[in-house]
Amino acid sequence: MVLTVAEIESILRIDLKNWEFIDSMIVRFIPRNNDISLGSIVEKIWDLAEKNDHHPDILLTYSGIKITLFTHDESGVTQKDINLARSLEKIY
Known about the structure:
alpha+beta
């Protein structure tokens, strides 16, 4: 079930402060840091996505990694996206 805008904004405000609600998706940008390999972060994201059978869009650029979550079959943000975002927060 797709979450309402109010539900999503409340979750982001309270629980997922590094995420933004943009164009009906939740998005997180992880900036490049000389102490952390972006490749290893992408690998950890992918491993977690495989484990959860829910795959984010991942854009790897010189300046960092953009992660976008959206449940395509539901055409919106669902609890599945929120759960994966919470899990992703633990790896970086």
